[in-house]
Design goal:
Helices cover about 35% and strands about 25% of the residues. By secondary structure, it is an alpha/beta fold. The strands form 2 sheets. The protein has a 6-stranded mixed beta sheet with strand order 5-6-7-3-8-9.
Length: about 240
């Protein structure tokens, strides 16, 4: 059995010198869909930034394993205003292609990159609009484009921060269908979400964070639903 692709050991995460969650311990393996839940201010988005390598934990470690590096991780942040402004004059294909840019490398695209872009466009179901301007798309279609962009970067791991934020129900359902397809294809996913039906549908493992304290739970979805926190979560209460 291969080692975990990501291991978090005794991590303390926070911002501006203030810890928001302490003593984080969990692992992420190939094939996992880890759903990260918790109340407002519990550090869910901060944790994704630390997992991505954009921030360091205040204490403890988050390490990559099984040959993975931070350049193998793709991320779809919750807030996309900056990205949408930056791509106002770009085509759909241009936006998706940007996911192939290597961190710290000169921006060039290989034949393999272009093949990956075409595959991601088809996977997300937007190949037929690849020449359209990104700025003219609906919110749901923009989110699909940005998901395809994240998938171009995600060689080993995909991080999603509330991927249906601001979407109507139809667009949200389509996004969850895509995420399920991605998970079933074997791509490990870590997703921040308080959408209870979506978490119960997609998760293999659940990490329940607690603002200002230690996590309430980490383990399989089945074990979570047998726990006190899980029973409340299933009933619509998020501690």
């Amino acid at each position: 059995m291969s080692e975990p692709i990501l291991t978090c050991s005794g991590a303390v995460i926070g911002h501006d010198g203030r810890a928001v969650c302490r003593n984080l311990n969990f692992t992420l393996n190939t094939g996992d869909c880890l759903c990260i839940v918790g109340g407002s201010g519990s550090g869910k988005s901060t944790l994704l930034r630390v997992m991505l390598g954009n921030e360091l934990p205040m204490e403890g470690t988050i390490t990559y394993g099984d040959g993975m590096t931070k350049n193998d991780i793709g991320c779809l942040p919750q807030t996309q205003v900056v990205q949408r402004d930056n791509y106002s004059n770009s085509t759909v294909r241009d936006v998706v292609m940007a996911g192939c840019l290597r961190r710290g490398w000169m921006p060039f695209f290989t034949k393999h990159d272009k093949q990956i872009v075409s595959e991601r466009l088809h996977l997300v179901g937007i190949a037929d609009i690849e020449k359209r301007k990104f700025a003219g798309l609906s919110g749901g279609m923009k989110q699909k484009v940005l998901l395809a962009r994240a998938l171009c970067a995600a060689k080993r791991l995909l991080l999603l921060d509330d991927p249906v934020h601001g979407l109507d129900k139809t667009s949200a359902d389509e996004m969850y269908d895509l995420i399920e397809t991605i998970c079933m294809a074997g791509m490990p996913v870590a997703m921040v979400s308080d959408d209870i039906p979506a978490v119960l549908r997609l998760a293999t493992h659940i990490l329940h964070l607690s603002s200002g304290g230690e996590p309430r739970f980490f383990g399989t979805k089945e074990d979570y639903l047998r726990s006190y926190e899980g029973k409340l979560f299933e009933a619509g209460v998020i501690l």
